[in-house]
Amino acid sequence: MSVLQAYGMGWRRLWQNRPYWGLFFALNFGLALTTAASLTAFLGKNAAHSLSISDSLTASPYPFLSALTSQFASDLDFFQYQSVGVALVFFLLQIWLLGGWLNHLREEATGVARWGFWGGAARYFWRTFRLAAYFAVIQGALLWAFVKLGASIAKDFSILELWSEFDFLHALWWLLPLYLLFSVSISLWHDYAKIHTVYRDRAWLTRPVVESTRLCFKYFGRFFSLYALNLFTLAAVCAIYGMIANSIPAHSMAGIVLLFLWGQLLLLLRIGLKLANLAAADYLYRQVSDWNAAAPTTEGITQRYNDVFNPKAEAL
Fold first, then answer.
1. Among residues 77, 82, 74, which one has the least CA distance to residue 34?
2. What DSSP state is assigned to residue 161?
3. Are residues 248 and 258 in contact, defined by beta-carbon separation less than 8 angstroms?
4. Distances (CA, A) of 240 to 8, 15, 229, 252, 269
5. Dist CA 76 CA 54 (whole Å)
6. 170 CB-near residues (< 8 Å, 6+ apart)
7. Is 1 within 8 Å of 287 (Cβ atoms)?
8. What is the distance, to the nearest Å, from the Cα of residue 100 to the centroid of all Cα atoms in its chain?
9. Whose CA, among 29, 73, 75, 155, lies 20 to 30 Å from 227?
10. Nearest-CA neighbor of 6 among 255, 242, 223, 275?
11. Continuous H helices in 219-252
12. What is the pLDDT of residues 77-126, one digit of tens each?
């Protein structure tokens, strides 16, 4: 099974299910708009007539932000607490929606409809929430371990013996790529644990996590290559966005509107990348696992996908 085939299948399935793509975008945009509305009302009441706003369009915005934080510190504290609440709601919303997306992918590919998108979102919410909590703890433990490792290495250096800060950074350069390797590996493990949990449909997570761990170790090369390919795609999208965004002048209302629309396009593409990554991982998972005893072979799984997504393949 080619990783490129799985990558292409992920985008293909995303395009065939673009109404769900739009749903994810609409809900995320609506949540962000709700938060922005209260902040806009606050700025309109307290800073709408400030000349520093227009000055910040052509110069540094730090004088305006510094004056705002010093004069309205108590009001801004409210928005800080609100941002924490919004982040929590956003986190729960993502878990809820992704459970429905994974269930929809499974039902679409197997041809066995049980709960649909919304039913799957409700059914798998608590399980995917627990998985997210468990893997967040694992990611936190990994970060803590690397911070402690970096601190222990730093103790061996004497500031008086260093020629510059680059000597210190050179001694720690290998920690960042090593940390990213482990962090990405844990993230892909999390994705396949979610997929395996939906396919096995078990209330207890111990067995699905153990089985998905074995699967990730056995097919780590394929899983990691697919995940890395999606990460490179995300990096390319962000790089293109940054280059174009930096070339758009924000000195006028037209430029601000254009930047806003360009930012929404980035949000749409990032959501699409997330959904396409899970769709591709779902396809690759079905290729290498015994998810269905009736069709355990790669040939049988591929034929089922051709029947669902490429009905003309047999004729070709």
1. 82
2. G
3. yes
4. 21, 22, 17, 23, 12
5. 21
6. none
7. yes
8. 16
9. 29
10. 223
11. 220-247
12. 666 777 777 788 888 989 999 999 999 999 888 777 778 889 989 999 99
Residue whose structure tokens are 């998905």: 212
pLDDT at 254 over 90: no
The per-residue DSSP string of 148-206 comes to HHHHHHHTT--GGG-SSHHHHHHHHTTHHHHHHHHHHHHHHHHHHHHHHHHHHT-S--H
Domain ranges of the chain: 3-309
Which residue is it, tokens 């429905």?
100
Sequence-distant (≥ 6) Cβ neighbours of residue 150 within 8 angstroms: 172, 175
Phi-psi region of 297 (alpha: psi -120 to 50; beta: other; left: phi over 0): beta
Residue 295 has pLDDT above 60, yes or no: no
The owner of tokens 């793509």 is 21
Q: The tokens 């089985």 sit on which residue? A: 211
The predicted pLDDT at position 52 comes to 53
- Spell out the residues 6+ positions from residue 135 whose beta carbon is closer than 8 angstroms to its own: 186, 187, 189, 190, 193
Q: Residue 13: which of 271, 277, 192, 289 has the closest Cα?
A: 277
